[in-house]
Write a structure and sequence with these properties.
Elements: E1 2-10, E2 13-19, E3 24-28, H1 35-45, E4 61-69, H2 74-82, E5 90-98, E6 103-107, E7 110-112, H3 114-124, E8 125-128, H4 139-150, H5 153-180, H6 183-200, H7 206-218, H8 220-236, H9 241-255, H10 263-288, H11 294-314, H12 321-336, H13 338-384, E9 391-403, E10 406-415, E11 423-424, H14 431-447, E12 453-457, H15 465-479, E13 483-487, H16 491-494, E14 499-507, E15 512-518, H17 521-533, H18 539-556
Parallel strand pairs: 3-13, 3-14, 8-12, 12-13
Antiparallel strand pairs: 1-2, 1-4, 4-5, 5-6, 6-7, 9-10, 10-11, 14-15
Length: 557
């Protein structure tokens, strides 16, 4: 659940800090006050694409920070634990976008990529925009909503994995059969390349070892001179480091009986003596390994040149030659035993296809059951949304070909009026009807979603009166099971919320800023009256607003 959001220097926002509670929260305000800025900020903090235009004019960066309680969210908690970012039951997500357009993101103080942030955000919050109905005509979106409603995401993931395995094996089989047409010439070429690599006989780590040895041989003179100087300064010179430390130790030993405070520096000096002696011995051993060997140096240079020449032939880095040798050996083996491997791969493809078909058919069966229930619920909701007698259906058909999502083609059909044949959503003429259908579908599909926080950004546009009240009741009903944030301009919806935030825009003549405040009971009455009556708010309007709140509380109960 979202518990707080902090926004700094975003659009016309200087700084906003908002706390959120459970249930349904509405955001209201005058047109242009910036109600949707809050929704945009939530999208950005959870991985939506951002740009320099997000930064308030004159500011260096825009910052977003959202805090979540994941104590009752096993999927989010598991993600945090898997990434080693878990901290008790809380989670802080932070996003920074600079005026130059650079972006950084952090989860519990740990830097994350935008891809990671987006994946994590999808577990926490789902945003339904005011123009969602425009994408509702896409079959991929319809299938996604059905899978969310039916709780089929895990089964679909299994199908996706089975499809990936089938596709991988099929590609291998096709590649093997493609190579079979020029098998003889390919065997000859691969055998030649493999023999060359076997003659080179590159050892694991040999490239780095040769490079290290070459540097050492090329600088043997400088190493010998420097090592000799270091050894002299440590022990052989007059005075040397060892001699000075020994003198210091003897002096402290003679004084420590008069001052206990000298015991600690005495121990440090004694330790330094030991370390200097050990350093001297290590340098001496290193000195024994240094030799000027022109013949060895020539051999190393020739070996490195030979490795680089073969690497250029194979168009890989020298250290990749070992992997290249293994690849060629595997291909050579495949080519020599192509017939047997072909049969084995064909059998593997058949098994993978059978596994995919079993999983896909099981998913299809569950989709069909979910589709029937989903259609019934949406049809029932249509009556309360101003479309009595309307019908919603989900048509299931075989897909043109197997796909990662399964073997189904999912099409939403609607009949907004009695006696009218259901048609695909894309052919529904009325934009208002489509907006109301979109809302019904979103609310009902969301009810089956595991995502804890739902955000609805003016999805109730185009409705009013009794329909608006039904919209509010459905959102409030959803708010009993999960956290709901709703940007609305309808008093009927706002009155049914558990919490009410007002967004306001303030100008000092030189700059305009957006602020958010939580409303108490009397403030809610005044805000509802404004939404009901516009500029001139009368006692009658205030009384109506008060009655709406009282009646809404009764209906929620």
């Amino acid at each position: 659940m979202l518990t707080s959001l902090t926004i700094r220097d975003f659009a016309i926002v200087h700084q906003i800090e908002v706390d959120f509670g459970p249930g349904m929260t509405v955001l209201t305000g005058e047109t242009g006050a910036g109600k949707s800025i809050l929704v945009d900020a939530l999208g950005l903090v959870l991985g939506e694409r951002g740009s320099a235009q997000a930064v308030r004019q004159g500011a260096k960066r825009a910052e977003f920070s959202a805090e979540f309680d994941v104590s009752d969210e096993p999927a989010a908690a598991a993600w945090l634990e898997e990434q080693a970012m878990d901290e008790d039951d809380g989670c802080v997500v932070r996003r920074v976008i600079t005026a130059e357009g650079r972006s950084r993101a952090f989860v519990n103080g740990n830097p994350v990529s935008m891809q990671q942030l987006k994946g994590f955000g999808d577990l926490l919050l789902d945003i339904h925009g005011q123009h969602f109905h425009q994408s509702l005509g896409k079959r991929s979106v319809q299938r996604e909503l059905l899978d969310h409603y039916g709780g089929l995401l895990a089964e679909r993931s299994d199908v996706e994995q089975a499809y990936a395995e089938l596709r991988s094996l099929t590609d291998r089989l096709e590649a093997l059969r493609t190579r079979a047409s020029d098998r003889a010439s390919r065997i000859e070429l691969v055998a030649f390349q493999l023999e060359e690599l076997e003659r080179l006989d590159l050892g694991d780590g040999e490239v780095d070892e040769l490079d290290t040895e070459r540097r050492k041989l090329m600088n043997s003179g400088k190493l010998a001179e420097g090592i000799g100087s270091a050894m002299q300064q440590l022990s052989d010179a007059e005075p040397s480091a060892a001699a000075m430390l020994a003198g210091t130790r003897r002096e402290l030993e003679s004084l420590v009986e008069f001052d206990d405070g000298l015991a600690e520096p005495l121990e440090l000096v004694q330790s330094a003596e030991i370390q200097v002696a050990e350093a001297y011995d290590s340098i001496a051993r290193a000195s024994d390994t240094i030799e000027s060997d022109p013949a060895r140096q020539r051999w190393v240079e020739e070996r490195i040149d030979a490795i680089q020449a073969v690497a250029r032939k194979h168009r890989v880095e020298p250290y990749q030659l070992i992997d290249r040798r293994a690849e060629l050996a595997s291909e050579h083996e495949e080519l020599l035993h192509a017939d047997e491997i072909d049969q084995e791969l064909e059998a593997s493809v058949a098994r993978a296809d059978a596994a995919y078909q079993d999983l896909a058919k099981s998913l299809s069966s569950k989709r069909a059951a979910a589709a029937k229930s989903f259609a019934n619920e949406v049809t029932e909701a249509m009556a309360g949304l101003g479309m009595p007698g309307g019908v919603f259906e989900i048509e299931m058909a075989d897909a043109e070909s197997p796909a990662p999502h399964g073997i189904d083609s999912v099409v939403f059909l609607i009949s907004a009026n009695p006696g009218q044949k259901p048609m695909s959503l894309s052919k529904v003429a009325s934009g208002g009807e489509l907006a109301r259908m979109s809302l019904a579908i979103q609310v009902i599909a969301s009810d089956g979603s595991p995502i804890p926080t739902m955000v609805f950004d003016e999805v109730d546009s185009g409705v009013g009166g009794g329909v608006a009240e039904m919209v509010g009741l459905r959102l409030a009903e959803l708010g009993e099971k999960r956290q709901v944030l709703c940007v609305t301009h309808l008093p009927q919806v706002a009155s049914l919320a558990h919490h009410h935030l007002r967004v306001s825009k303030v100008s000092d003549g030189s700059a305009t800023r957006t602020g958010i405040s939580e409303l108490g009971q009397q403030e809610r009455i005044e805000e509802l009256a404004r939404m009901l009556g516009g500029v001139d708010i009368t006692k009658k309007t205030l009384a109506h607003a008060s009655e709406m709140l009282t009646e809404a509380a009764r209906k929620r109960a």
